[in-house]
Amino acid sequence: MPTIFWQTIIGVIGLLAVASIAGYLLKRRHGPDNDTIRNLNQRVAAWWLMVIVIAGALLLGNYATIVLFAICAFFALREFITLTPTRPADYWPLVLVYYVALPGQFLLLGLGWYGLFTVFIPVYVFFALPAAAALAQDTNGFLERNAKVQWAVMVCVFSLSHAPALLMLQIPGYFTTNAPLLLYFLLVVQSSDVFQYVCGKLWGKRKLSPHVSPSKTWEGLLGGGAMAVVLGALLHGLTPFHHWWQSTLMAFVIVIGGFIGGLVLSAVKRSLGAKDWGVMLTGHGGMLDRLDSICFSAPIFFHLTRYFFTPA
């Protein structure tokens, strides 16, 4: 790994250490019953775990990272399907989802088969799932049921797989590994969520979309988004982008994509009558609550990077 990768990891660990100390001091001052402080400490503890797991996978190499994202996709998919009503006739479509679509997508990624990777789910799985459902001969809510399953696969598997797909890009003049690029993407998209949360808590007054996501504010979006874009500019050394302003623009795209992802999947949750996708990550909700911004920003970032910074 290049030196900039290790410097960034050490910097992240340092920030988490500061956050842990601050959380401990706030807990001592205000007591363990303060909901906001307790939630903050839970989030910091979860971040420690996530940083250790992600950094470990990146250090172990591309295949370990792909497997990690495949596992994350499985849990995100399970959360989506759990909140979505299904019928006995959906058995075979769900078999195809879990045993063909999900492993097939990440297997193609591991093989570096870019052509099939990009069309496997949008083309072949798109036709296979409703065909399997039609053969079950249950027309009750047929369109709605299939639309939900298709949505689950597109968001939780296809879109998410574009994050580790950054590892397959052949970028001239870049490091021998694309792990720093993936680290850059994850840091920008996740820090945007954190910064928006903090700015919203400190200064948020004007609700952005109260019926969809009551906690989101204009102050949180603008303040947190701006901080994440600045971070993206500072992390320019992790990227293959030739100028710092290109890294800044890419960070802006990531922030916008991540925000839209969080807002859209919040709307989906509300339509299903749920506050969170699950309870897997203490302080964060479910796996999909943590991945929603990645799912929407990863494909955009991947294709922009591929189009502008890889050979034609």
UniProtKB/TrEMBL annotation:
Q: Which region is the signal sequence?
A: none
What keywords tag this UniProt record?
A: Membrane, Nucleotidyltransferase, Transferase, Transmembrane, Transmembrane helix
Q: Name one Pfam family in it.
A: CTP_transf_1
The residues that cross the membrane are: 6-26, 47-76, 96-129, 149-169, 181-199, 220-238, 244-265
Q: Which GO terms describe its molecular function?
A: nucleotidyltransferase activity
Mind listing the GO biological process terms from this record?
A: peptidoglycan-based cell wall biogenesis
The name on file for this protein is Phosphatidate cytidylyltransferase
* Naturally occurring in which organism (per UniProt): Pandoraea pneumonica
